[in-house]
Amino acid sequence: MSDQDVYAKQGFGNSSGFGRSVALVMVDFVNGFNDPNLFGGGNIGEAIAATQKLLAFARRQRLPIAHTRVVYAEDGSDAGVFRLKAPSLSVLTETAHASQIVPELTPEPGELIIRKTQPSAFFDTPLTHWLISKGVDTLLVTGCTTSGCVRATVVDSMSSNFRTIVVTDCVGDRAMAPHEANLFDMGQKYADLLTSEQVMAHLAKA
Amino acid sequence: MSDQDVYAKQGFGNSSGFGRSVALVMVDFVNGFNDPNLFGGGNIGEAIAATQKLLAFARRQRLPIAHTRVVYAEDGSDAGVFRLKAPSLSVLTETAHASQIVPELTPEPGELIIRKTQPSAFFDTPLTHWLISKGVDTLLVTGCTTSGCVRATVVDSMSSNFRTIVVTDCVGDRAMAPHEANLFDMGQKYADLLTSEQVMAHLAKA
Amino acid sequence: MSDQDVYAKQGFGNSSGFGRSVALVMVDFVNGFNDPNLFGGGNIGEAIAATQKLLAFARRQRLPIAHTRVVYAEDGSDAGVFRLKAPSLSVLTETAHASQIVPELTPEPGELIIRKTQPSAFFDTPLTHWLISKGVDTLLVTGCTTSGCVRATVVDSMSSNFRTIVVTDCVGDRAMAPHEANLFDMGQKYADLLTSEQVMAHLAKA
Amino acid sequence: MSDQDVYAKQGFGNSSGFGRSVALVMVDFVNGFNDPNLFGGGNIGEAIAATQKLLAFARRQRLPIAHTRVVYAEDGSDAGVFRLKAPSLSVLTETAHASQIVPELTPEPGELIIRKTQPSAFFDTPLTHWLISKGVDTLLVTGCTTSGCVRATVVDSMSSNFRTIVVTDCVGDRAMAPHEANLFDMGQKYADLLTSEQVMAHLAKA
Questions:
Q1: For testing contact with chain D, the best of A69, A70, A124 (most D CBs within 10 A)
Q2: Which candidate, A196, A199, A195, A145, places its Cα nearest to that of A175?
Q3: At what angle do helices A196-205 and A44-60 cross, to 10 degrees?
Q4: Can you list the positions of beta strands (E) in A76-162?
Q5: Which of A130, A132, A137 sits opposite C162 (nearest CB)?
């Protein structure tokens, strides 16, 4: 029996669908994650290009939009376990080039910018409560990396009872095996997997 | 360049090590996840057997010990997105056989039992604050499934600044490819991967 | 200048109003808080009587309804700082008479029952995410005590971006000075203060 | 029977004491809360003066130290219910004079600075997890206002299982009745009330 069959037999892999009010979050699309010499590589560049179109669409549709950045204090006052596992992340400070959002996706006034220190966009941030203030029940997740901050964000989004959609061509990773493995896990248990074209077609009709 | 090499070059895969005070959590080792006709299969049975020894050791060492169960209300009052993705989980109610902890790991008085409704043992539960009350800084994670509730628990444990150790022979999954893929992700970014023998050898010396 | 004038001059005391979707929470209306020999007294009995009418109305209007209970483990495994300050709370266990919801407000199937160990109904509980699943943006808070679990719940509700309404005749306290002082604080900064009659008149029209 | 007697009879008002590892948090001691024409007044100036001595002591003792500031986005992207109740708070932006920490308490490198948008220093911030990273089990709370952000922080601190101490001469409020009423509530249920002299005497011996 294939893995897929095991999951199907046990009742996983159903669709949670769209609710009535959708927001877009872009996880960690910052220069440092678009640079193979820092934390980038793989298909992250393509994901940024695809997200540029989705972002333009979301702005036309006036969806609530949030961007996340990883930002650590210059003086190390917020050091923790994540930087024991990956000390190189400490370069991501407020003013570092590496932690600025990529030019293709520059935030516009009124879009939320979330500074975070952990993988999930929800962890120790106001994201849940901002989504409540906007009346959102469905979250489109884009960003990088699929196997890291996107996965962590998706698990928290679903756990928070937001219907969650991973926009498959708008998420990227430095390495393809983790990218694929995490899409499988998320699709089976936490989120629907849709292309940006499918998402835009659905929302254009709504 | 291999995936492993990409991660090494970018500064991932370091060890976060042991702190000074260790606790053990066993995630969702309940009958339903040890039954291939419900949510079990794969190497979960072996993980339970290995955890039985680790639990006996932890009791002798008087470590704080927590068990988790997935428990949903009989009347559906707590239905949410997780059960849109996996409706079959709804059988896990307070008194159902499927949601009782497996006999090999029956909790003893004084051990914390956490009822949860989402993948992470931390999500909407008192786990973080119980660990604070015990002065814990290091968490041994066991349980199932590796690619589901274990992974979600590990991400939250690390994000909460607990040094996190996945006990590799004490975690199991219904399918082996997700098991392996998630061990890779966790070892690179969130936790140290150690066998139960390595953990017990370290703690016996401490 | 009176306290009220100071707050007015500094820009506090505005109304946050009703949103589009309302839920009702009843905080800790359990036998032990309706018994002056345990944790009750003052105007708690009157608050229960007034809440009985509001609850009947909420059921007719099909509002989402949640009850909270304080529940501690029989074996002391979840002991913490709250029970250093108030050791007598430890009698509130799953099966104790003191921790059952008062007969006047017995939950009906489909109403959420939240077990909690801390003052706020939101702390380490699924309340936020259940409200998200119901599409709620406005929370009616009733219960006891005004200066304790009601106040803590109201602060978290407002902080979570729910428009929050304290139903003044449906909250009670063992002592009147703290009751009044906390109504003042909440009205100035966190919630609108309305009688049950005002609330029902508003919702009947909506 | 006096209020105090009611609380004593019901088992409240015990001491939670000091643990083994103490940190200091200073809540919202920013220019705007030290200016009676903005959000200040009352005894906040005296609280700042007393905290200056406690801070110097804490630095000599090398305690972990955290400062909080209220900071809202310039473009209103993070607007929520708190600013419906108190729209004037919106002046507290990253670069506004009103939201800078008062000169007497200027942070030193290595001290944590927490930006927050809600009353509690814990709400949507990394404070809990930073305290975990420092191995802290006891929190000294100072700041303003006693009936607002101090109270909310103290409830969350106790709920998180930190032994909590309100330093009575280091907390202040714009109005004295709420200051006193909230000291009463906190002392009965959530925290020990000690003067800065008592705290320093205890820690000097430890």
A1: A124
A2: A145
A3: 10
A4: 112-116, 138-144
A5: A132
Mean pLDDT of A174-191: 98
pLDDT tens, position by position, D175-192: 999 999 999 999 999 999
> Can you read off the two tokens belonging to residue C155?
């602060």
Contact yes or no for A135 and C133 at CB 8 A: no
- Beta carbons within 8 Å of A151's beta carbon, 6+ residues apart: A119, A182, A185, A186, B155, B185
B22-57: pLDDT as tens digits = 999 999 999 999 999 999 999 999 999 999 999 999
Max CA pair span of chain C: 53
Nearest to D28, CA basis, from D88, D116, D138, D89: D116
Q: Using a CB-CB distance cutoff of 8 angstroms, which residues of chain B are in contact with residue D20?
A: 135
Contact check, Cβ <8 Å, D80/C10: no
Query: For residues C64 and C135, what is the distance between their CA atoms, to the nearest angstrom?
Result: 10
- Beta D138-144 vs D22-27: how paired, if at all? parallel
Sign of CA dihedral C198, C150, C177, D44: negative
Closest-CA residue to B117 (of B70, B66, B152, B67): B70
The CATH T-level fold of domain D3-205 is Rossmann fold (3.40.50)
Taking Cα atoms as reference points, which of D125, D161, D206, B183 lies closest to residue A116? Answer: D125
A and D: number of Cβ contacts within 8 A: 45
DSSP assignment letter at B147 = I
Chain B residue at shortest CA distance from C84: B133
Is there a cis peptide before residue A145, judged by omega within 30 degrees of 0? yes
- Neighbouring chains of B at 3+ CB pairs under 8 Å are A, C, D
**Per-residue tokens: B143:** 């349980």
pLDDT, position C1: 80
Helix D151-159, helix D176-189: angle, nearest 10? 10
Nearest neighbour of B75 by CB, restricted to C79, C80, C110 = C110
CATH class, range A19-69+102-205: alpha beta
Chosen for mutation from B122, B127, B161 (greatest number of chain D CBs closer than 10 Å) is: B161
Q: For residue C175, what are the contacts with CB-CB under 8 A and spacing of at least 6?
A: C41, C42, C147, D3, D6, D7
Residue A1 has what pLDDT?
80
Which residues does chain A have within 8 Å of residue D77's beta carbon, measured at their own beta carbons? 109-113
Q: What integer pLDDT is reported at residue B41 of this predicted model?
A: 94
Q: How confident is the model at residue C116 (pLDDT cuts 50, 70, 90)?
A: very high
> Domain residues of chain D, as ranges?
3-205
Domain B20-205: CATH superfamily, name plus number: Isochorismatase-like (3.40.50.850)
Q: Which fold has domain C19-205?
A: Rossmann fold (3.40.50)
Asked whether D86 and D57 are in contact (CB, 8 A), the reply is no
- C-alpha distances in angstroms, A132 versus A66, A184, B53, C137? 13, 29, 45, 7
Single-letter residue type at D136: V
- The CA distances from residue C70 to B94, C28, C31, D187, in Å, are 18, 7, 11, 21
Of residues D132, D137, D161, nearest to B161 (C-beta): D132
Residues of D near B (Cβ–Cβ under 8 Å) read: 20, 128-133, 135, 137, 159-162
